[in-house]
Amino acid sequence: MLRITIELLPKGRLDKARHLGTGYISNDGTGAGGIGNYDVTLSQRGRPGCVWKRGRVIGFPRKRLGAWDLLFRVLQVTVGNRNG
């Protein structure tokens, strides 16, 4: 399982960290070879224990691409293109 945590650090101060979001990405074990399928949950600011979005990434080439590529696909399927 991967956990991605986004925090705001005002002026770089760890003691003032504010939670902006947390994502959990877990391989569901149904892929084959170098292909993985993943379940995803995302939370929103200040509510790390509450699910905001759920999704699935299917057919991810986990041996060819890395964690940032997986995170990119997670954001595509859960949040979509919000910068358009």
Structural overview:
The structure is a single chain. This protein has 84 residues and is mainly beta. It has one domain (2-78). The protein contains one helix and four strands. The chain has a four-stranded antiparallel β-sheet, covered by helices on one side. The protein starts with a strand and ends in a 6-residue tail after the last helix.
Overall geometry comes to: elongated
Number of helices: 1
- Residue ranges: pLDDT <50 for 5 or more in a row? none
Q: What is the total tally of β strands?
A: 4
* Main structural class: mainly beta
Mean pLDDT: 93
Total individual domains: 1
Topology as H/E string?
A: EEEEH
Strand percentage, roughly? 35-45%
Instruction: Report the span from N to C terminus.
Output: 31 Å
Helix content: 10-25%
**Major pleated sheet:** 4 strands, antiparallel
Rg over alpha carbons: 14 Å
Adjacency order of strands in the biggest sheet:
1-2-3-4
